[in-house]
Write a structure and sequence with these properties.
- This protein has about 450 residues and is α+β, with helices and mostly antiparallel strands.
- It has 2 domains: about 220 residues, 3-Layer(aba) Sandwich (Rossmann fold), CATH 3.40.50; about 140 residues, abc- transporter (atp binding component) like domain (Coagulation Factor XIII, Chain A, domain 1, Distorted Sandwich), CATH 2.70.50.60.
- Helix content is about 25%, strand content about 30%.
- The protein has 10 helices and 20 strands.
- Helix 7 packs antiparallel against helix 8.
- The chain starts with a strand and ends with a helix.
Length: about 450
């Protein structure tokens, strides 16, 4: 257990559900079962190392909040064990642990006492909590008068200012204004640098990819995937937008390699990729990085070629900042389609979306219905306003109602040539141009003209 902040072993949580309240009494008196069991968590096991950030992804009802509440100690497990090392601070729901009629200042003391701090230690941190929450004007007002964003700001400020060893956050980062969200993520990164452990739940893949070292995908109380955040985020996207018959991330489509750096639990039975009418495997994609591409869809139409070309239509894998290029997507119908829409997504090496658009959103264009075997080529011209670094291009073809036929995440890896005039950790190139107005010279010029 050395070096572990959290150790979860074979965790299970089940609830008894009764059709009517009186059935609970009848069951207790008569002995005949009148309930059905709902399993919220089933054989969940994982570790969180000290100084790491773990993200939890999953649809509503997947068991994320139940898991966090058990780890935080506010809910008992049916079976299994959870071991934590150090002080745990949790932001589980808006207002949890706070009294609605107490003022914000009084709730700071209440929250600090619940986390095991002495009143003297809380006294020394009150000013820091108030300053970070930016609630100076309202801190002595009743907590019930706060907006949801203000409540989240106070809860986050209290939980992080008490200097916990383990911080648990359940969707709290999704509430509040953009400036406070930025402050919150900066504080999470600071905690990480100081060796603290963080467990965070969010429906935003971008948020989790930007701060997490590792991610877990939960569905129906079981771990579907545990690994690198970008790979887990791709699987979560498939779970949300893939074919409705898929109960969890499907196997990659023909011609696509599986994601590296991720451990996937044994999934329930599902339709295999070969059950889709895809025809022969597509050719290798120019610039694709082995193991990075993630692919799914119902296969009615598929992307048989995807590449970046320069103004001379030459395929390229290395871009020059501010030059003009085109993303070319070749689509072939496997069976008769409705009107189609193609789109392109650009992400950085951490998996954060930096640009995304499609034909309908951009220019209200669609591809006419295709017969089996017919092809269409879509070109998206763009100016590479990107700074130096590694980027990944994804392509999608879908019906106009959003049903995905073929999604190729991170199909093309490209490098943007270094630009000496901007910082190396920059993502975009704004074509900067500086000028200086010397007020002394301007004054001398006016004197000469007079």
């Amino acid at each position: 257990m050395s070096g572990l902040a959290i150790a979860v072993r074979r965790l299970r949580k089940s609830y008894r559900l009764y059709a009517r309240p009186r059935d609970m009494l009848f069951e207790a008196l008569g002995g005949r079962q009148r309930h059905r069991e709902f399993v919220a968590l089933d054989e969940v096991s994982f570790d969180v190392a000290g100084g790491s950030v773990l993200g939890l992804m999953g649809r509503n009802g997947a068991g994320k909040s139940t898991l966090l509440r058990i780890i935080a100690g506010t809910l008992d497990a049916t079976a299994g064990t959870v071991t934590t090392s150090g002080r745990v601070a949790a932001i589980l729901e808006l207002g949890t642990g706070f009294h609605a009629d107490y003022s914000g200042r009084e709730n700071i003391y209440l929250g600090g006492l619940c986390l095991g701090l002495s009143r003297k230690r809380i006294d020394s941190r009150v000013a820091e909590v108030i300053e970070f929450s930016e609630l100076e004007e309202f801190i002595d007002q009743p907590f019930r008068t706060y907006s949801s964003g203000m409540q989240a700001r106070l809860a986050f400020s209290v939980a992080t200012c008490v200097d916990p060893d383990i911080l648990i956050i359940d969707e709290a980062l999704a509430v509040g204004d953009a400036r406070f969200q930025l402050k919150s993520f900066d504080r999470i990164r600071e905690f990480k640098r100081r060796g603290k452990s963080i467990l965070v739940v969010s429906h935003s893949i971008n948020q989790l990819v930007s701060v997490c070292d590792r991610a877990i995908l939960l569905d129906r109380g079981r771990i579907l995937m545990d690994g690198e955040p970008n790979a887990v985020g791709n699987a979560y996207h498939e779970l949300l937008f893939g074919p409705p018959t898929a109960a969890e991330p499907a196997a990659p489509l023909a011609g696509t390699q599986a994601n590296d750096g991720a451990r996937q639990a044994e999934p329930p039975a599902r339709a295999a990729a070969t059950d889709l009418d895809l025809g022969e495997p597509p050719p290798e994609v120019t610039g694709a990085e082995g193991g990075r591409e993630h692919r799914y869809g119902d296969g009615a139409a598929r992307i048989i070629d995807f590449q970046l070309v320069d103004t001379q239509d030459r395929a390229v894998t290395r871009l020059q900042s501010l030059e003009t290029y085109a993303a070319v997507v070749t689509i072939r119908a496997a069976r008769q389609t409705e009107e189609l829409c193609a789109g392109v997504l650009v992400r950085n090496a951490r998996g954060q979306d930096i640009f995304a658009t499609d034909m309908m959103r951009c220019q209200d264009l669609t591809i006419a219905p295709l017969m089996p075997g017919e092809e269409a080529i879509v070109r998206m011209r763009f100016r590479a306003n990107m700074a130096a670094g590694t980027y990944f291009f994804s392509a999608t073809v879908a019906r106009c109602d959003g049903t995905k036929h073929d999604v190729r995440f991170d199909a093309i890896m490209t490098e943007v040539a270094p630009v000496t005039t901007i910082y190396t950790d920059t993502l975009v190139n704004l074509e900067p141009e500086f000028c200086i107005s010397d007020l002394r010279l301007l004054a001398q010029a006016r004197e000469l003209t007079e």
